[in-house]
Amino acid sequence: MIFHCGGGIVVLDNEEVDKLLDMSSAVELVENAITAKTCGNLLCPPRFRLETSRGNLVFTSGAIVDPYVDVLGFRVYSTFPTSTSGETQATMVYDGKTGVIKGIILGNRLGALRTGAIGGVAIKHLAKEGVCEVGVLGTGIQAETQLIACIAVREVSSVKVFSPNSSHCAAFVEKFRKLCNITQVATARDCVEDVDILIVATNSSSPVLQTEWLSPNVHINSVGPKFVDKHELPEDLPLKCSHIFTDSISQLDSYTPTHFIKECSSAPQVRDLSEVVGSLQPFQREKSAITLFLSVGLSGTEVIIGNDVIERSNATL
Q1: Going from the N-terminus, what domains does the chain have, and what CATH number goes with each?
Q2: For position 2, what pLDDT does the model report?
Q3: Which family does the UniProt entry place this protein in (predicted)?
């Protein structure tokens, strides 16, 4: 639903975001934002938490200044121990030249599409080219948008998906049946073995796979927990990787407690994805190289995508 406040401010919800934005466009917007980061035109500080005894507010802010886009803003969401039926997330977009509010987007869909698009950029630049087999561990909204983005940037021959919740897994398969050749498998190992791209998007605080299951030349997108005391990936995985990337070094380093890779002194240094996206030379995968992308949420990207959605909404008026 679209609302209009005073001063021409548009207010959009999840339904309008899905109507106005496709994943291919979101991937392109995020790719442009990461390129702007390389040039110093994207301001993207780590997220900020406001903590109370009842729950927290989490803010991610950012701005982009270039000849084509000049916006700034923030996304805020609450984290409370009890669930609620009301809205918990909002993204505010300001005109970068005047400081005037352009619009507000309510709901979780924009954030999920943004995270999926970041994953799509990583797959586009880091995974093997050509036809790919994909494995997906997890069946929530983050797994959904990661897979949609993967399909947008690669030719996918088949998808295997696993979740310990069989009914969730079956529903996920049904949702994607028209988009790809997708199969529910019985174990995490079945999902991980013999794939070119592995999407790990769980909320697990302990590893959901074993490193020995991975195929040579696999690319991994990890969306879930990465803390030293809670992580969805096995501790020895970084030691097997040839390259490790993230969308925000500053965000990764701001984790408290620290991220689990910091404890692996022999692992490759974590590099910023902008090094590859902003380079004139494409990333060269070595044979049998395992690459890992740690998605932590590059701030500012939700503002850039939100601005595009608002512009599309205004164009329909």
Answers
A1: 3-111+300-315 (3.30.1780.10), 128-294 (3.40.50.720)
A2: 62
A3: Belongs to the ornithine cyclodeaminase/mu-crystallin family.
